[in-house]
Design brief:
This protein has about 260 residues and is an alpha/beta fold. The protein has 3 domains: about 110 residues, Spore Coat Polysaccharide Biosynthesis Protein SpsA, Chain A; about 60 residues, no CATH class; about 80 residues, UDP N-Acetylglucosamine Acyltransferase, domain 1, CATH 2.160.10. Helices cover about 20% and strands about 30% of the residues. The chain contains 7 helices and 21 strands. The strands form 5 sheets. Strands 3-2-4-1-5 form a 5-stranded mixed sheet. It has a 5-stranded parallel sheet with strand order 8-11-14-17-20, with no helix packed on it. The chain has a 5-stranded parallel sheet with strand order 9-12-15-18-21. A hairpin with a 2-residue loop joins strand 6 and strand 7. The protein is globular.
Length: about 260
């Protein structure tokens, strides 16, 4: 994006993704552009969004990622309002600024190591453009957060946490490795450090640090946040469990909506 911004001599570059017109309506900031991807209008969650020229079923939606020339940024900071989509960038349209759109799905290119097996030998190679070069999710709702989390499990995930050239840089607590005891097992799951799986079954779930799952409990397609105790014989599916919770023995979550609502 930086290279694109400099090559195009843009004052402001806005990263954008292609989203279906129906999906974009009322949900995203939509960018109306000309054939050169110059910004014409910034529509904040319109019910009738403008589409990409020549592509009537798709819109370009703002990813909330912006790049500025310093001079343009100084002018932005003088303007009234504090929201880029509602106040700041719309106030610059029609003035003497080159505001360009970076089509992330088309332009973004992440190179990364991959592995191929040839003649029985595993070899590391560089892939010029990985599958997740154009991956982006707006996780502003519980449903979208859940779906994005579930994207992490496949053998070749659409968003890969295990890249070597693009590591996830985050705080790591000094916790011990997780352990599985008395037949505890996890299949197609992500288990963070400090967890104890004591004779429980976990499938297609994420366990954050310091989670204890006791005997005969069963977790399915769920996201378990930090420092949670799940007592014996609990059953949880299609759930997001918040931090510091204790799930009592024998409780079922995700099996009976009326009970869940209570």
């Amino acid at each position: 994006m930086h290279q694109y911004h400099k090559t195009k001599n843009a004052d402001i570059t806005i990263a954008a993704m292609r989203v279906g017109k129906v999906e974009a309506a009322g949900s995203f900031g939509v960018l109306d552009v000309d054939e050169n991807l110059m910004l014409i209008e910034f529509q904040e969650k319109p019910m009738q969004p403008k589409t990409i020229p020549g592509t009537p079923d798709f819109c370009l939606v703002s990813m909330g990622i912006y790049m500025f020339k310093v001079s343009a940024l100084r002018e932005c900071l003088k303007a009234a309002g504090d929201d880029f989509g509602i106040d700041i960038i719309p106030n610059l349209i029609g003035k003497d600024y080159r505001i360009l759109i970076y089509d992330c799905e088309k332009e973004n290119c992440i190179s990364e190591f991959a592995y191929e097996v040839k003649d029985g030998k595993r070899k590391r190679i560089i892939v010029d453009r990985t599958m997740h070069s154009s991956y982006w999710k707006d996780v502003g709702t519980i449903d979208s957060y859940y779906k994005a989390s579930m994207d992490l499990f496949s053998v070749a995930p659409i968003f890969n946490l295990y890249g070597e050239k693009w590591p996830i840089r985050t705080f790591k607590r000094p916790l011990p490795p997780s352990k599985f005891i008395f037949g505890g097992r996890a299949i197609r799951s992500i288990i963070s450090e400090g967890c104890i799986i004591n004779g429980a079954r976990i499938w297609h779930s994420i366990l954050s640090p310091n989670v204890v799952v006791e005997q005969y409990s069963h977790l399915e397609q769920s996201i378990i946040f930090d420092n949670i105790m799940i007592e014996p014989n609990a059953k949880i599916r299609y759930a997001i469990i918040d931090k510091q919770a204790r799930i009592q023995a024998g409780v079922s979550i995700g099996y009976n909506r009326e009970l869940d609502m209570q």
